[in-house]
Design brief:
This is YHS domain-containing protein. It holds the Pfam family YHS. Keywords: Signal. By secondary structure, the chain is an alpha+beta fold. A hairpin with a 2-residue loop joins strand 3 and strand 4. The chain is globular, with a radius of gyration of 14 Å. The strands form two sheets. Strands 1-2 form a two-stranded antiparallel sheet. A two-stranded antiparallel sheet has the order 3-4. The longest helix has 14 residues, at 138-151. The protein has helices spanning 2-13, 77-85, 87-90, 99-103, 128-136, 138-151, 154-157, and strands spanning 60-67, 70-74, 111-118, 121-125.
Length: 160
């Protein structure tokens, strides 16, 4: 299933229509992994991206919050509470899908280890090559990604 999804994601990046396998999406459009399940950002604590240590940390199922149809894991109850109080400040943009692919009107998985905080928001990328491209013109890609994400109907965000 993983290979099939990656091939589909690569093909989606080359075309304008939005295409995603249903198992990778939670009801609110959040990317929940190529193996299915319902855990967002591969279990990484999204609050940790914004803390001073410079690296995100894996969360734990002991500290979880449901948001946009997905389950977010956190490394502490304090981080879970912080997220719960303002999820839009800590959830990745475009539901955790690749920010560059979204600029092309496509959905592709975001790798939680390939990220950038820009303008106080968390953006994920598909792979290192894509991230290099993304970093070359972040504001330009955001100007394309935001309207593309807004055009993805809620039902289509989770594979209907």
């Amino acid at each position: 299933m993983k290979l099939r999804y990656l091939v589909a994601a690569a093909a989606a990046m080359l075309t304008a229509p939005v295409a995603v396998s249903a198992p990778a999406m939670a009801d609110g459009g959040v990317f929940v992994g190529v193996e299915g399940g319902n855990v967002a950002v591969s279990g990484y604590d999204t609050v940790s991206y914004f803390q001073g240590n410079g690296k995100p940390v894996l969360g734990s199922a002991n500290f979880k919050v449901k948001h946009e149809g997905a389950v977010f894991h956190f490394s502490s109850q304090a981080n879970a509470d912080t997220f719960k109080a303002n999820p839009d400040a800590y959830a990745p943009q475009y539901g955790g899908h690749c920010a560059w692919a979204m600029s092309r009107g496509s959905l592709a998985p975001g790798d939680p280890t390939l990220y950038k905080i820009h303008g106080g928001k968390l953006y994920l990328n598909f792979n290192r090559d894509v991230q290099t491209t993304w970093l070359g013109d972040i504001d330009g890609f955001i100007s394309k990604s935001d309207p593309a994400w807004a055009k993805v109907p809620e039902g289509k965000k989770f594979g209907d």
